[in-house]
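To the wet lab folks,

You asked to see what we're planning to order before we commit. Fair enough. Below is the target structure as tokens, and below that is the sequence we designed to fit it. If anything looks off to you, flag it before the synthesis order goes out.
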């Protein structure tokens, strides 16, 4: 590294540019590498409304948008639980059509589950609590038979977690 180049630590600094000279035989070429300031990503849980959840720049530093992100993750987790226990396909439906419909439902359930997981990977404590709370409320509404006395079998098989 040349004497004019500086390296800053990960917490707040950035590298303006690094210049390296490569000498191959008699020709010399100079290339410049620009390293842009990288956003801080937390690798441990933290509390605060300034974070990024699922999309770059969202919710940002706005408290209102953070509240919307909490509600969004909560509702997403409730919807995942609904998919786990819903019974939409009527008995006697064409088996091929029912199979394709179940496959589509499984794909949507899996995609939504991954979105909840990715939101939790923001390592924001509020988002984590919203996801867990959404799953708990969804399970109590659709899976625990407290509010739903129906004994219908769900369309999708349960997610089996074998350790």
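Sequence we intend to order:
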């Amino acid at each position: 590294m040349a004497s004019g180049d500086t390296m800053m630590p990960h917490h707040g600094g950035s590298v303006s540019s690094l210049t390296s000279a490569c000498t191959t035989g008699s020709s010399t070429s100079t290339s410049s590498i620009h390293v842009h300031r990288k956003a801080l990503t937390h690798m441990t849980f933290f509390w605060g409304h300034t974070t990024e959840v699922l999309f770059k720049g969202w919710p940002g530093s706005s408290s209102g948008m953070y509240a919307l992100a909490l509600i969004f993750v909560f509702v997403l987790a409730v919807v995942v639980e609904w998919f786990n226990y819903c019974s939409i396909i009527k008995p006697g439906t064409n088996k091929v059509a029912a199979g394709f419909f179940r496959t589509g439902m499984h794909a949507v359930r899996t995609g939504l589950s991954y979105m909840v997981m990715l939101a939790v990977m923001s390592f924001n404590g509020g988002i984590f609590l919203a996801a867990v709370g959404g799953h708990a409320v969804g399970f109590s509404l659709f899976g625990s038979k407290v509010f739903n006395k129906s004994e219908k079998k769900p369309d999708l098989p349960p997610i089996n977690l074998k350790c």
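Structural context that might help your review: The chain has three helices and four strands. Strands lie at 18-24, 27-33, 51-52, 59-60.

Thanks,
Computational group
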